[in-house]
Amino acid sequence: MTRFAVFLYLTIAFLTACTPQGANTEPVTLTRYDRDLQAFLQTADTIDEQAFLTRHHTFHPLYVSGILQIRPVDTTTRNAIAQRFSRPDMQRLLQGVDSSFAHTEDIEQQLGKAFSLYRRFLPGDTLPRQIYTHVSGLQQQIINLDTLLSVSLDHYLGAQFPLYRSIFNPYQLQHKSREYIVPDILRVILYTRHPMTTDTQVSLLQEMIYEGKIIYSQQRLLPDTPVEKLLGYSEKEWQWCRNNESNMWERLLQSRDLYTTDRFLIGKYISPAPFTAPFTQQSPGQAARYIGWRIVSEYMKQSGATLTDLWKNNDELNILKTAKYKG
Hints:
mainly alpha; four-stranded mixed β-sheet
């Protein structure tokens, strides 16, 4: 073996050894149902029409009846879809999607890396075998079945998309961009695979830690995505939470809201809003989720638990105690 060959062999061996475990990218291809549907509406070829209906035999009826609210058995279904798509607002959304999502390789690659890590960290979970894209007319954002998930691309056209400003509040607009697609997909999968307890007496602390688990899991599955993006915060909102973390925790303890089961009050801390009312009007919305993420993060440091262990532990008091969180 020549010296060059030896050097090349050692270089490859070194690079292989330094490649982080789980850094592989799982092949993921987005099934562009949104494009196929437009082609279906324009074709006069019976064979092409049947090929479309065969290819999308699972998702098409769900889309027609569940999102467009059209009877899928109606003989005029095709005409009804075409009529819906001819509306000016739908045309603007379709054009926006065609322009913004001409290529989706970046989304597929990011999702492939996340799925690879998901299988490594949560091997007991199942992931959808097919990822579809559709245009909902700003209706349901993500549809998640056992083996199929579909994302409504018209929800991710950017904060400056003209149609959004007459529909969404300003605090919602920053989440309407391409970079939120994969985090949102993972959040929905985690919500589905690890649902919140149906106990009617769920406390604010339980809700906070549950949301903290979701955000922490996303962080492990998307290591290149800043946690403020996973929280849905701007840099200013993120800095506010960091600067006021101890104040928020003190407020929760003094008010004794931490153990409340009042759904209306819990909503003020957890639900999307321009700000978190029990804190201050300067706070970002859902700021209690930030505290939940901080508690879970400290718990994971103190316990050395795996993600699987984390999701098996439904004792929020144990998590809080183990975390030794002080705000």
